[in-house]
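Lecture 7, part 2: worked example. A protein chain together with 2-oxoglutaric acid.
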Amino acid sequence: MAVKSEMEFTPELYPQFPSTLPGYDFPIASLETISLKKLQQDNETTEQHRLLEACKSQGFFYLDLTGCNAGQTIFRGAHQVAQIAEKAFKLSEQEKLKYVYQAGDLFGYKRIGLTKVDENSTPDTAEFFSISKDVICKTSGCSDALAVPYPEEIISAAPVLAEYMHTAHSVGLRILKILFEHLGVPGSAEAIASRHAFDEVAGDHVRMIRGPARRDAALPEIQTPAHTDFGSVTVLMNWLGGLQMWSEGSSSAAREAVPGKGAEEGKWLWVRPQANCAIINLGDAAGKFSNGVLQSGRHRVVPAPGEQGLWPRYSVVYFVRPNDECVLRTLEGSGIPARRDRGGEGAGDEDEDEEVTAKQWIFRQAERLRNGKR
Ligand SMILES: O=C(O)CCC(=O)C(=O)O
Ligand SMILES: [Fe+2]
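Predicted complex, written out as structure tokens:
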């Protein structure tokens, strides 16, 4: 096969996200746009309330990155990271497999097909490099910084990745701090910072993703199967459509996975990429800390719709996750129901009742996802 010399991550050439898809039902998610600049200002309470409502209802929103330094770092940094990703994904299969995930690993190269998208073991079509914050930033908790090797294309870009990780992490923490403050958690800044200390070992990482161009207009062809993110908050940059969110929040999402139990109660909505915006979604840990008040929106990735689907799809994700040893226990706050007040919901569900550390939770969920269980 001829080696491609041209770049394939070329956002300036991508066609517009379509508004209709003739012959297909094409529902598009309607998400709030929240300004990062305003979230950084303590007196912008209206924006803070909009944030809280978006996270209680959908668990997904657009974060407008304009007008502030952190936003610009994420905007420009994500472009750079995607360019680094392209170089890394263009390495030979043999080279990439040197960095492949081993059983129980969270970081490294995830080859195409490792994850099963359904009970029939249909393989996924996306490849990832998952790059640990602790390794790249050599955090004090990371004693053996060389334990997870990455290709030279990634290692040589460590300064770009480190700046991106620092900035995305602090944006995630700002969002969490505001949310838990408005849920009445006393000292929410400290409550959040101590559970997500940048310098401590955690599952925090940058994930570079490449999904192939669409093969067939009609097939759903799953690049990444339905899931909720395992951590607290996710900062997602993508340039082509293909991300879909489930129309109902996480509480009803669980039912959809069980045949006959309300599968008809929702549908997949396309999330349109928005210029100058990141897409933010909450993960399971935010749901656990808030006892289900905050939603971890369920989502999946398919090839981009229409003409956009002619391009391979890149995305750059930063996952803010609680520190490994943090117990995923409900925080106390006036806006958070205490566990005993939750009634019967979740009763008998081992994951709901048991207190687990973030590390245990993430490993367990990652394993389930790879094996096609949701
Ligand atoms: O590629 C995307 O747009 C989303 C990726 C995603 O959901 C994930 O990696 O958890
Ligand atoms: Fe995700």
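Residues 207, 209, 224, 229, 236, 238, 243, 299, 301, 315, 317 surround 2-oxoglutaric acid (ligand 1) (CB under 6 Å). Residues 158-182 form the longest helix (25 residues). Keep this in mind for problem set question 3.
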